[in-house]
TrEMBL record:
It comes from the Bacteria. The lineage of its organism: Bacteria, Pseudomonadati, Myxococcota, Polyangia, Polyangiales. Residues 2-238 form the ABC transporter domain. GO terms for molecular function: ATP binding; ATP hydrolysis activity. Coiled coil: none annotated. Keywords: ATP-binding, Nucleotide-binding, Transport. This is ABC transporter ATP-binding protein. PROSITE patterns: ABC_TRANSPORTER_2. It comes from Sorangium cellulosum (strain So ce56) (Polyangium cellulosum (strain So ce56)).
Length: 246
């Protein structure tokens, strides 16, 4: 389980996170939503020690990771994989070689074993037949799925997705949604998804937290958001230009 407890973070005079608290339960698909610049990426970077809070605590599986030094962060990063918005695959390696890389580096598998295991991992994301292709030969959606396969190589308990469907065509975006849902349902992975994509949110989220002006505006399931009388929540989820959001 992940707990953010009264987390505060400022950059110079800018108070990005003022007092943010919520828990993410094991196995759920948990979305973090809110306007551009509200601090969604800043928040998830705290989980893996890419940022440290100015105040408050972050707990992961019973340990306060917000006080960990680099050495103690290492196993945390193995447990929490990140899938960045732009797939960071090596263009000069095949998809299978890309997925095999962390298996060789962190699990010590020999090249042949790592490649065989990489092909099994590609199957999880329905990309097995593309193992010998190079990333530039594939579309964005397929590259994203390979990046997800690579993120899964070290059997993380948590996968942090930063805007996984942004810049994908609608069909590829829905395939990525389906995959995120499957990872929770079949592997028990906990997914934390930063997203603006209303279709994803209302199709696959178990729970959603909305950040607004440095605070949690609403935390709840899809029905709680759809039925919320809060005009800020309603404006965000309907994507309306008119309303209280500045
Ligand atoms: N390392 C940093 N140094 C200074 N300011 C930063 C740093 N990282 C983030 N910020 C600022 O913190 C604020 C929140 O950024 P963040 O990237 O978390 O927004 P976001 O909610 O993820 O937005 P988007 O949806 O556009 O990705 C922004 O104003 C950003 O400029």
């Amino acid at each position: 389980m992940i707990s953010f407890r009264n987390v505060r973070k400022s950059f110079g005079p800018k108070d990005v996170l003022k007092d943010v608290s919520f828990d993410v339960e094991d196995g759920e698909v948990f979305f973090i939503i809110g306007q551009s610049g509200v601090g969604k990426s800043v928040l998830i970077k705290h989980l893996v020690g890419l940022l440290y809070p100015d105040g408050g605590e972050i707990w992961l599986d019973g340990e306060e990771v917000s006080r960990f030094d680099e050495a103690r962060m290492y196993p945390v990063r193995m447990k929490c994989a990140m899938v960045f918005q732009h797939s960071t695959l090596f263009d000069s390696m095949t998809c299978a070689e890309n997925v095999a890389l962390p298996l060789r580096k962190h699990k010590g598998l020999r090249p042949k074993e790592a490649l065989a295991e990489a092909r099994r991992r590609l199957e999880l994301v329905h990309m097995r037949e593309f193992g010998d292709r190079f990333p530039p030969e594939l579309g964005d959606g397929m590259r994203k799925r390979v990046a997800i396969a690579r993120a899964l190589t070290l059997d993380p308990r948590y996968v942090l997705f930063d805007e996984p469907t942004t810049s994908l065509d609608p069909v590829s975006a829905r395939r990525v949604d389906k995959l995120i849902r499957e990872l929770s349902d079949t592997l028990g992975v906990t997914s934390i998804v930063v997203s603006h994509d209303l279709v994803s949110i209302f199709t696959i989220a178990d729970r959603i937290v909305m950040l607004y002006q440095g605070l949690v505006r609403l935390l709840g399931d899809r029905a709680a958001f759809q039925g919320s009388p809060d005009p800020v929540v309603q404006q965000f989820i309907t994507g309306s230009a008119e309303g209280p959001i500045e």
